[in-house]
Fold each of these.
Amino acid sequence: TYYFNISASGHPFQIRNSNGGSAYNDGITNNGIQSGTLIFHVLMNAPSTLYYQCTSHSGMGNNINIS
């Protein structure tokens, strides 16, 4: 389980299926928050690559590799 402590007013933090893709919500609490804690309990069937991204700014994000 990973805890992301977010303090990014105006920059909603979301874990997604791909860059610009839909939200990935399996095992995630508070996806898309700007302030608070996003909790990501990685499930056994999670994809090998996800993406974290600011939902307001497409250039703010990067890969999450799960192994």
Note: The mean pLDDT is 96.
Amino acid sequence: KQPIGREINPPYGLGDDPAQAEIVKRIYEEFTHPYRHATLSEIANGLNLDEIPSRRGGMWHVSSVQYILLNPVYIDAGIINADTWQAAQRRLQALRPGPAK
């Protein structure tokens, strides 16, 4: 819950900085590339190596990349299409540990 009077920040890529939307596209493209599927760790490391600040201005972590990939708000914003989001969800589901189905 947000405390009363506290400003609610939009998700990464949906604020005033259009460069962030390009970073969101990059994350989805690297994760869903048909021939080279980058891991969450590789994507975070690549963003850190390129010195791209995270939402809070610090380093990227696997959880930050995963949060972006799980968030469907980027479809409505027109940053990615539904097919790309679905491809990311299928790949994320395959990464999750658990009993075989």
Note: The two ends are 36 Å apart (CA to CA).
Amino acid sequence: MPHIDIKVLEGVFNDTEKERILLDLIAAFGKAAGGNFKENTSAKIIEIKSGSWASGDQIFRTEFGLAIKNDKS
């Protein structure tokens, strides 16, 4: 039924974190959609090579993703 793709920079999340992200994302969608959507939703993480993603005039690199992940402010 529904399928969710999430794109992240490679090297930012380890396997355990990716598993948690996927399961939490599916659970959140299931809660929002109601019914049996949690059991019928799939998701995948697509890792984008560092330097192969940009927005405006900024090239995103793994270091940028790690800085966001580690920001405690």
Note: The first helix runs from residue 15 to 33.
Amino acid sequence: MKKRIKVLITVFAVAAMCFAFTACGGEDMSGSPYVGTWTATSASYAGMEMSISDLLDGEFTFTLEDNGKCEMNISGEKDTGKWSETDSGFKIADEFEATVDGDTAVLEYEGVTIKLERK
């Protein structure tokens, strides 16, 4: 099961880099409560939860900038795109939506639930 979660995280990362991070920012997001770096702490699939450090060699982060740009870093592989606010959190390049509760966010993609915390 650990291997399946690792494969799904890899699929998520590849999809994010190939499809989501293609646009530039430009929108003023300086007043947004979501600006900052969000670090993935765990991932779950089919009821099995694992820490990101057990799945990846390095960090998995989204940095939401006040100009509407976003940088994603997965184990040192970086890409950029844009982000926007939603009613319940933030959306990255109209592809991935996170629900935020304080300094914790939950992002779901193809059955994988990723928990993030703001640094």
Note: The chain has a mean pLDDT of 83.
